[in-house]
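job 3f2a | input accepted
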Amino acid sequence: MTPISPGLGLDFGTSHTVAVLARDDGRVEPLLFDASPLLPSAVFAEEGGRLLVGRDADRGARVDPSRYEPNLKRRLDDGALLLGDAEVRVVDACAAVLRRVRGEAARTLGGTVPGRTVLTCPAGWGPRRRELLATAAGAAGLSGVELVSEPVAAAAYFTQILGHLVRHGGTIVVYDFGGGTFDVSVVRRTGDDAWAVVAAGGLDDVGGVDLDAAVVDWAQRTVRPDDPAWQRLRAPGTPADRRHRRHLWDDARAAKEHLSRATSAGLAVPILDVDAHLTRAEYETIARPWLDRTVRLTRDTIAASQVPADRLAGIFLVGGASRTPLVATMLHRALGLAPIAIEQPELVVAHGCLTMLPAAARPSSPAPSHRSSAPPSSPAAPRPSSPPASSRKPVPAQRAAGGSQSAGRLGERPGSLRAGRDHETHVVLSPAQAAKGGRLTLSMEWPALCPPCSGTGVAGGAGRGPRCAACAGSGLTGRLDRRSVQVRLPAGVTDGQRVRLAGGAHPSPDDGGPAGDLLVTVRVR
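job 3f2a | predicted structure (525 res):
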């Protein structure tokens, strides 16, 4: 994994803002706002003119929603907001949200403000919007501000943090399904740390909030649809009814999120005092029209890029709404390529943009190193050596950690033997198989390592040095072999769960070194 220079990565999203902090000692961590990495991108104007942001703004909206704006990013072109009787410039409202991020970063660092900040924005933004965001960042007191497009930051995370191999000239698809909008980009690698957006598209009226609305609509159709109480929930006229409406929408969002890992969820309907139960099958039925639009746009954007779907290096799911299991299923069926999902897709852009900071500590060699996300005082547990693939025994699965715990392309620890390349695949299980677990035989396409460099991408297989001429530094031959591997999965795995099979992937380039891990994404159908 490429070393990250100290700084602040900031993803100013339509519904939420996410910030990731890189410390001087190499640790990378998301900032927490009220114990959550997600800060609502919302503002509320108090009667005295003071702006509340985040969850404070959400709470203010329960009293007077006319003073509340939940989606600042959608209002950038408006110039000013009318919040109650107060007119607030959009740039000032954005600065208020970013100022909260700056304050939390300074508190985390003991009063020091990060010297450099990377802000992300959609690929399709023009100079005016980019300038407005940069101006808001300056007004918030953020230092050394640089702007990076969101799909480029996601591509950097895909390769530099997760360790997926993308050759120079290779392309990936970034499917970004956020809380308020949907964006899709085809991104091509043009250098070791350089990317270009080949084609991009977006839907400003499709996001996680629209799936929340679909759940609320389902509840109204299902639970006493003719009851007058629904009018109070749809158009509340009193502070009490506004609180009831907020509770209904909060519960709808929670039910949607719960259905990404369970087959049913409860939904409490206030005022009517009824508990409804929504199954995953029912949810997928009401969500499908929205997801169909994202899949169609993804196919059209890939077609516009003139990159054949079978030549894509991967489809990367970004944004909280991409957790919906049906998303990966529909994309797989439409494109013939299984998307790559992680446990915290909201953090991808903010974390990935940090890798774009120039750092003197970066090695000149193209071969990245594996680094544990644990602090230096907590050394990673040793990984077991692996026998040749032909004689491997089934390896036990450990629950995969999310985000930065995903392994790099080739592990290297100072003073120790290097680990082999990790490999990712997926498996489709029946509900009975998922509940029981046990031994399975996976048949998968297996990339062949470059013999001259033993898969390291460095001439002669060394830890540092010139790029291998045979594979142009990729470490692979480009040939895919078919391989069967026996694995043992734990009982009770769930749809979308990612498990790590220690020592189940490529052998180490060093004699006696540990093999890489096999990472398996489980789909339950």
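job 3f2a | Residues 49 and 457 are 58 Å apart (CA to CA).
job 3f2a | closed
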